Amino acid sequence: MPPHQLLGLAYTETCLFACDHCIREASPSRSGKMHIRDAKGYIRSADEIGIPSVGITGGEPFLFFPEILKLVEFASGLGMETSVITSGYWAADPARAGEMLSKLAEKGLDVLGVSWDEFHERHVPVSFLYRLADLCSRLGLRMVLNVCRSTRTRMNHEDIKAKVHEQNLVPLGRASSLPDDLFLQYEEPPSGSCGNLLNPMVDWNGEIFACCGPGRFSSPTSPLRLGNANDSRLRETLLKAAEDPILGAIHVWGPYGLWRLLEDEGHNQLYTPKERYLGGICMFCLDLLDQSEVVAILRRKLRSPETKRRLEAAILVANYRIRVENTAKNRSVSRNHSQTTALVPSRERN
Ligand code: SF4
Ligand code: SF4
Question: Using CA atoms, how far apart are residues 15 and 31, in angstroms rounded to an integer?
């Protein structure tokens, strides 16, 4: 697989809200939280094996703001790119929001991720987004707006100074109780590759998953479950995952590609496609990889010289694309940083 690009840390499962679509099932009554000492250890491991970025998510990481400041400072001191994902609830008071973002910028934050969509809108007004986008722009931070897309999504983000990252609503976690007509539906097994595998995640309790989010719902034997950082060293676990051909194949060919390999082997009776899939490729992927017999056959197939060659070639192409994207991103970051110089007082730049 191409090298991992970001280690996600699901720092807490506590949140001020309990959104209906929350795949993490975060809420005010959940209390699980990572220890800051463990989080620093995970960040150090990621840095040692060349993962360039760390993303702190939750629940709501801003509920532990002093710790988040320390983690951002720690990761950025190692030279890593840092991001924190939030609902943005703390932007109610413009002065306080400015102060908090300035502190994060001083400690080296690169990206503020704000999750916002029709579900978050019940708790966080859209005006907070504009406020945060303006503050980020003034402080030289990049803002990414994470939108969970349902069939009702009618947002127009064009005038917000943020990069928009859309992901389909998937029927997992609390979203599994939402009505079916809210999910985008696919009648054939959905095709498409998976970029999320470049971003493995450590949950607050040390559980390690190959992808952020849906992997938490996989069976204990699924290749998406990588183990627990309390029982095994994160560094070795991630290096092993990066070499796993099943994960590499999902990254470049998607679950559809794996299903076709199963057919090539004459084992299509082992997996009967459903009449429809809600939300995209994830439910198909979880289904396929939850079956250990299917995974064993796929592993055998992926070891055959012809398939191995094809996979290596596809991974080379994916690797090349990532390098090109990273170069473009670095160029735009250095451009943004030089624009910022004029806007941010020197105290905030140091
Ligand atoms: S979706 Fe985000 S804001 Fe809503 S409950 Fe989950 S973590 Fe909290
Ligand atoms: S497609 Fe599979 S690996 Fe990718 S995010 Fe969905 S469940 Fe995870």
Answer: 9
